[in-house]
Design a protein that fits this description.
By secondary structure, the chain is of the alpha+beta class. It has five helices and seven strands. The two termini are about 30 Å apart.
Length: about 130
Amino acid sequence: MTWKLAVAVRDDLAIWQKLNVTGFVTSGFASAEPHVLGESYIDASGQEYPPILGLPLRVFVGDAVALRRAFDRGLGREALVSVYTDDMFSTMNDDDNRAAVLAVATTDLVLAGFAVAGEAKQVDKVFDKLKLHP
């Protein structure tokens, strides 16, 4: 099975917020599915660097309605879904991030972005109505 990883961010976010969301929502996939992690990197001087995700990654953008539609499709498929909500921009640590998500029902989450990892065809179906981020 060929895996893919894709991220969606809301189009009205500031650039720093889009980058922050992308980093956060992709960070957990390596622990959830270790096979998505590549090998360590070593430069010509012998300096070793930790592995990074070894999957193709695409970043999409859309308005709040488009993100909600794609997010709901992602939850309905056999894929891993991570989430970043607007409330998480005002927190300062992981405990508070989890509490912010826990306090809101799935249907009421205000999505800043999310990511999906899974079988490539399933991931493509989740994001088929969103545009690639320019």
